[in-house]
Amino acid sequence: MNLQEYFNLNRFWLYLKHDLKLYKKKYLGFILSFILVLFLIDLFVIEQNLYIVKVENNYVRTFRTEIYQVVFLLTLLMSWVLVIGSSFLPLRKRSSTINYLLLPVSLLEKVLVQFIIRVVVFTCLFVFLYWIEFKLALSIIYLFEDKQSLIVPSFGVFDFFEKSLIFSHKIIIILSLFSVTSFLFAATTYFQKRPVLNTVLALGVLVLLAFVFSVVMSHILLPDEVNGFEMKIFDRELPNKWNTIQICLSTIGVMSSLFFFPIAYFKLKEKEA
Amino acid sequence: MIYINDLVFNYDKQKSLFNNLSLELESGQIVGLFGKNGSGKSTFLKLISGLINPRSGVVKLNGDNPFKRLPSLMEDVYLVSEDLYIPDISIKKYIDAYAFFYKKFDLEKMHKIMKDFALQETDYLHKISYGQKKKFLIAFALSTNCQFLLLDEPTNGIDITSKSIFRKVLINSITDHQMVIISTHQVRDIETIIDRILILDDGNNVFNYHVNDISEHLKFERLADISNKKNIVFYEKELGAYKVISPVDNSEETDIDLELLFNAIISKAQIKL
């Protein structure tokens, strides 16, 4: 087996440049609109979540740093749906699909380029943009507020994790997020038409199925303890701040990328035009 | 070399296009691929280029399965499909973005053919006419120096002058290691340049011969009266005369009337070489 047929660094680099040359305008346009939308979201979220506290006999307005973390995760997931859901752009039209499939680049290189641009580069960019935009939104609010009555908690670029989280939990969250990207890749290669919408629907169906499965299993195994749509899941505390539900969810979260990435790869491999 | 053995193919829920089609095509020739509408000419090109996978049977290009789309093989396959893919960039940028994938790409040749076709590097692909787009893609295809050049209806939408330039350019560009397969309905556009005639009908290769073999065995005449003519293989009546195919006798070889030959094959005339 000639491994050069599957990956060649020079060809990969050329293909990465090719993708950037071809879609430079689209990427720039997206980033600019994204900056604007993210700014408006941050502004809205901060404005809606300011609350009053009493500090040394004065009432001041402030916001919880958890807001920064929750909105970070939500906007990241939503952006991924858009960004990863629209990967493999040429596969949306028959003419460009032909061109894309016949390009003398290996499938692995094609997938890697999408992964690097849409997951690695975009996520890094997102982390910094989100922080800058949040700070900017706060500065704008600060401009229009009485400076004495607003307290802005400090937060750094990488404060998107709850500080109390232990290292292993952080790793699990990162790997689970990685699995989300693998699901989005699988969905975008599976759905030829309206990939973003269909991906969201597929995600909804998956969550619904998991819920229905849990409810059904609860009714079968513990019929006396559940009613209607209730479910009962036993949870045991384990050493090192772990519990059984976390173990179960972490296993699903971490392992599903092993399932979804091959689906995406082989779906593309079998693609016809 | 193209090797096809027992090829079976049909699109989903449609009748079979190819039933145990077998043929071999050597490099160093221009093959005219003809057939009625729906006879599978474009599908044949897609199977050869690896865009679709046969239901059963073998398709091999230089011993490799094209559907694997290995970069080393794809560097030697270029398909100009009827569905033109034209990104919103200038000709110069297109060449910059795509040429480096083809190791044998000849920029000088590209400029020469573009000059013949009156195309400018600064032209924007979205702003030029369909015919110009087609000429550009033909120029690009020829400049890649790919071993297998597959042209699907290349003369559709091209003006009369450009058709003549196309023939001249094609003949001057092709080397002995290359094979060009031209699928077309417009037999007159290419009848002077093809080396081999491949006519597809009823899911099989019903006719696959070199033009020299045809000229050696068949005579194409235009006669006012055929009442005394013996050994007629096929004839067609036209205004004031008959177009006739008959076996070659001792007289001189005649030019092949491709249209008449095509009609003879489609009409199931008993043509034996």
Write a structural description.
The complex is a heterodimer of chains A (273) and B (273). Chain A contains 7 helices and 4 strands. With 273 residues, chain A is mostly helical. Chain A has 2 domains: 1-163, no CATH class; 165-273, no CATH class. In chain A, strands 1-2 form a two-stranded antiparallel ribbon. In chain A, a hairpin with a 3-residue loop joins strand 3 and strand 4 (242-243). The longest helix of chain A has 41 residues, at 9-49. The radius of gyration of chain A is 23 Å and the shape is globular. The relative contact order of chain A is 0.11. In chain B, strand 1 and strand 2 form a beta hairpin. A 6-stranded mixed beta sheet of chain B has the order 5-6-7-3-8-9, sandwiched between helices. Chain B has a 3-stranded antiparallel beta sheet with strand order 2-1-4, with no helix packed on it. In chain B, strands 10-12-11 form a 3-stranded antiparallel beta sheet. In chain B, 29% of the residues lie in helices and 27% in strands. Chain B folds into 2 domains: 2-87 and 146-202, Rossmann fold; 212-266, no CATH class. With 273 residues, chain B is of the alpha/beta class. The mean pLDDT of chain B is 92. In chain B, helix 4 packs antiparallel against helix 5 and helix 5 runs parallel beside helix 6. Classes of the chains: A mainly alpha (273), B alpha/beta (273). Chains A and B meet through helix 1 and helix 3 of A and helix 2, strand 5 and helix 3 of B.
